[in-house]
Amino acid sequence: MGRLIYSMMTSLDGYTADADGDFGWGLPEDMELHRYFEEITRPVRTFLYGRRMYETMVFWETAHELPDEPPEMAEFARTWQAADKIVYSRTLETVSTARTRLVREFDPDAVRELKAGDGDITVDGPGLAAAALAAGLVDEIGPIVAPVVVGGGTRFLPEGVHLDLELVGERRFAGGGVHLQYRVRS
């Protein structure tokens, strides 16, 4: 049975993007972190995206073709391309990446069916993660905390969520980031 994992870069004060929508402060030049992203992404069978997160991630469809692309980023691109993607959007007309399908509504029962298969699934983006958390679908939460405070913006976790968590892993990076891995207790 697969796990549904919510893991994103977040500021120390719990935001995935600042008040202007910028998330460039998230350790972009840390190649150790990029290698780690590829490592933890390798077992992912399916990515679940909302429209905005999908539009951000489309970059990885061709990133491996860019000249002078660091090997860490090219390898992540190939790993990302190998996984299936589901984009939930009422406004997006089409998807432009391989192995991707467009679904109009988030259906918790359909995600439960996905989880019944092998391989991990990630829910990417705080809006879609909020829906998955509300439906009790998330098995693991993994904030990757950047050493920055942004003072407001898009929250990593939605208001009012209450979860009992067990710390099952942590990893520190030379650039100051820390990945905390929590299992959601039933």
UniProtKB/TrEMBL annotation:
Example of a GO biological process term: riboflavin biosynthetic process
Provide a Gene Ontology MF annotation, just one: dihydrofolate reductase activity
InterPro entries associated with the record? DHFR-like_dom_sf, RibDG_C, Riboflavin_Biosynth_HTPR
Could you tell me the EC number(s) of this protein?
1.5.1.3
**Every Bacterial bifunctional deaminase-reductase C-terminal domain range:** 4-171
Q: Which Gene3D superfamilies match?
A: Dihydrofolate Reductase, subunit A
The protein's superkingdom reads Bacteria
Short name of any one Pfam family annotated for the protein: RibD_C
UniProt keyword terms in alphabetical order: Oxidoreductase
What PANTHER family does the annotation carry? Answer: 2,5-DIAMINO-6-RIBOSYLAMINO-4(3H)-PYRIMIDINONE 5'-PHOSPHATE REDUCTASE, DIHYDROFOLATE REDUCTASE FAMILY PROTEIN (AFU_ORTHOLOGUE AFUA_8G06820)
Write the protein's name: Dihydrofolate reductase
Q: Which organism is it from?
A: uncultured Actinomycetospora sp
